[in-house]
Design goal:
Coiled coil: 511-538
Distance between the termini: 37 Å
Radius of gyration: 28 Å
Keywords: Coiled coil
Number of strands: 8
Protein name: RelA/SpoT domain-containing protein
Pfam families: Ank_2
Largest sheet: 6 strands, mixed
Number of domains: 3
CATH class of the largest domain: Alpha Beta
Organism: Ditylum brightwellii
Strand content: 5-15%
Amino acid sequence: KQFNTAACWALVKAQLGEDALSRINFTDSMIAQSIKNEDIGEKLVKAAEVANVRLVRELLEEGADPNHRLGVNYGSSALHAATNSLYFNEDNIDVYEEIVKLLVDDYGADINLPDSMGNTPLHVLFGATIAGPPFRGDSLVAGKLEKTRVLRKYGASSNVMNYFPYTRPLGDKAQTLEFATFREGRDTELFGGTAIMFGSRILSDEHDYDASLDPQYQGLTHDFISLSRIEDEVPAEFENDGEAIAAIKNVIRMGFGDDPIFAGKGRDGKLILNPKNNDRFQVRNQLFLTGHHDLEESQRLGSMLGDRLLLPILEIVFNRSGTDSDKKELMDFAMYLFGQGISDYVKDNLKDVAKDCNDKCAERYDALYENIKTLRTYTEKKKMSFAEVHDTRHPVSDLNWLRPENQNTIVACYELLNSGGVDSMVKFCEFVSSCQGTYEETFFHPENLSKNFWADIYAFHLVGQAEAFLNKNFQSKLVEAVPEAFRSKIHEGPVKTVTRVKAKRFDYSTLAEHFSELQALKADKMEHKQRLFDLKREYIARCSTNYDDRTSESGIIDICRASVVLDNEEELVEVFEAVKKEFPICRIKNGFHQDNDVTGSGYRDMKLNLLVSIEDEDGYECVQVTELQLTLKSFEDIKKLSHLPYSILRGDFD
């Protein structure tokens, strides 16, 4: 991952020649290309991460806040990003120091600035890079010690404690660091002698333990609140939903103040805690610490939170009580409690509540369908205009470079750069090196499947095409096709991530039948997991020689997607006819058809798979199948309500 960008380009130029590279049409500065749409604070963090001193200086001169924190990645600042970056090692530690000096000495950055989890750059340095037995990669540890010397030189404190799990920067990795300093002949003065053992905890066996009263953890957050206080504030039973809503909202104010709990969703769909928030409950950690002293009390508190908060919230929302703003606030708190593991304490009752809600949603769907007339027979139940190996697939005629007999890493690099699968040579080199499997993956987690270059590259290629070229074109053509009166009802869906595409590709491989059979074995989870792992390993082995498996992602035809939520049947038919005139339709799936079986769910919509192509001025052609969902607002409202109980019953929170 430490390849020099210029050296990488030289290698590609030698293999492909200048003429071939000119078609890529990249600017000289890959960094500028990848961050051109970000605000100045985000640019500063990115520039520090990739060791671009010149750009860091220019952005600071333009007025970038040296303490700017991202809304994602736990609220990292430029110092966090540079400290955690793989671009720095012992050979270029002077560049790292120059960036630290610029930020701290010249522009006043706080070297002990915490991220949203309370981690300073020194926390990040050791928490993110030292793991496993102390004999693992002493040179790696040594490089981090050099970074530590720089941070300490500019004022980094080893006494600042974070929120998760309440440790000083060296945390639970202190012994690893101590061993490394001994083997490398380094002194411990850097950490103040015995201060190297910061992070070790001695927990007594005293009874009636309360984590919030432990002097070791007091003052870590403002008004650290004991879980027993929640028990005092919230009754075991409520007279009505109104009383429950008021009591639970009061608890939310106790823990989070007036700020929203979450800042939004990351690209992986997971909720991101609001970096402005200071979670005063620290539920998971309080239960963990209490469990060290009294496991029974920890179990009781966890059950109390489930019975008095999580389950009542779900019942209120599922029964449609309260205002929309109340339900939104309560559901955010419920997702926080899920994230803190509270569902584990009330698993049986949780599934009962979810099943009751799911049944009610099915009844509401059935009642709505009674009023559907036209769409019952408007199209065939399922109609395909063309079909290849597995229903509709992305056209794959231009993928000869992926055929095993033609494979060439340099050509693959060119194709990925051309398609937008990676935006720089550095990113390509990181992808290549990540495919080799790390020590931790192979030694500590043999159950993890290491990345494989030829098995994974098509996923990057497809998603890159979608993000760089096709999605924007698809969404703009859709707006033009839909009648103006309904354009405000179009909702652009996010491009599917590489991770999601890789997870779904097995269903379109030559092993698809075996993966389908596994769904019946979920009752025996250990057998299921082992068989699933073996099948995935067999799939990767087949990718070395089988072109169909290498391109199995071509069956995932909703990488680019959008939806139109309409008020009635007449509007849906009008939009359908308009879209049909402007797009080649590969497949229609009419969920409203009278022969369509929706037992167990009741949800209905219409899905259209549309062929979209684009060619740039240099002749690069991109063709993919996209998905457009046409649905009715009445059905969509119930779907939003049923998503969580469906996830619970599916076992997502087990």
